[in-house]
Amino acid sequence: MDAKNWVAIGAASALSLGVVAAGAVTTANALPLVAGATGVQLPGINLTSTDDVKGTPDIAFDVQSDSIVTPSPTTSASPLTPSPTSTPSPVSPVSAQSPVSPVSPASPASPQSPQTPPSPASPASPASPASPQSPQSPASND
User: Residue 24 region, left (φ>0) first, then alpha (ψ -120 to 50), else beta?
Assistant: First the structure.
C-alpha cells in the first residue's frame, strides 16, 4: 500500500473513534448518577434526596450484617511438651565388592565389500555455436 492509502485509513479510524466516544458521552449524560433517583434501592446506601442529583448528594452508608458466618470459638492453648530424644540409628554394614565382569570376545571381522563396476563414459557434448560479434563500444573520454 502506498502512503496515501495509509493516510486515508488513519483518518477514517480517527473519525470512527470520535463517533464512538461521542456516543459514549451521549449515553452517559442520559443516565442518572444516583441509583435512588430511578427508584432502585441498593442495600446499605440511603439517599436523603430522590431528585436526579448531578452533584454530591447526602449519602449515608449503613452496615447491617446478615452474615451466616460465625467466628470460630477460641481454643485454649495446650502446653507444649518436648518430644523425646531419638536414639541414633545403627551403622549399616559395608556392602560386598561386586565381581569383575568377564572380558567380552572380539567381534568378527566384517567381510570385504564387492568392487563396484566403473561407470560408463559419458557421451561427448555437442559443440556450442559461435557467439555473435558484439558491436564496438565507443571509447570513453574519462
Answer: alpha
DSSP E strand boundaries for the chain: 45-47, 59-61
At residue 141, what is the residue type? N
85 located within any domain: no
Using CA atoms, how far apart are residues 29 and 2, in angstroms rounded to an integer? 42
Cα 15 to Cα 6, 9, 11, 20, 27: the distances in Å are 14, 10, 6, 9, 19
Write the pLDDT tens digit of every residue in 71-93: 666 655 555 666 677 788 788 88
3-class secondary-structure state, position 140: coil
Q: Are residues 2 and 26 in the same domain?
A: yes
Whether the per-residue pLDDT at 107 is higher than 70: the answer is yes
Number of domains present in the structure of the chain: 2
Q: Which residue is listed with cell 470520535?
A: 18
What are the angstrom distances between the C-alpha of 119 and each of 27, 116, 126, 135? 88, 9, 21, 45
Bridge partners, residue 59, by sequence: 47
Question: Which among 16, 18, 38, 37 is positioned nearest to 26, based on CA atoms?
Answer: 18
